[in-house]
What we know:
Blueprint: H1 4-18, E1 27-28, E2 36-43, E3 49-60, E4 63-72, E5 77-87, E6 89-100, E7 107-113, E8 119-126, E9 129-136
Antiparallel strand pairs: 1-6, 2-3, 3-4, 4-5, 5-6, 6-7, 7-8, 8-9
Amino acid sequence: MDRSKPLAIVLTCVALLQSDMLFATQVAVRRAEGLVHGFLSLSTMEGKLLADGDLIQVSHGNRVTTHLVFQFKDGSVHDETAVFSQRGNFRLLSYHLVQKGPAFPNDVTLTAAAPPSAPVQQTVGQNVRDRVRSQSSNPPAKNRAPDKRC
Length: 150
């Protein structure tokens, strides 16, 4: 398994979140999301089991929280939580990702939160030394759509 792919995916997501030119198309809520519990397996193309996981989604009023956890056979963990508003249109309110263990080239913690002026924070750990980067993810005011609270 190529160990650089998960980090490349995370860094691509961070770059997209920081882009001033990228604006997401809103997705209308047609039916309210509800309770989901999935029991997942992550395997190689040859069928070798890499990780077992859980996907749990709960809804409280207009908020939907989705929590995805993979426990790898080597002890590594991928833990991802997203909170959405489902009032009118889906809107990401917060996102948190933790990847740690030997399956990943670096330990990664990524956090993004609404409103658009909230910082995107990424922690990349390499054994003893940690680096923390914080960057505002909001586009310039002239290009930003009006903030619609959930």
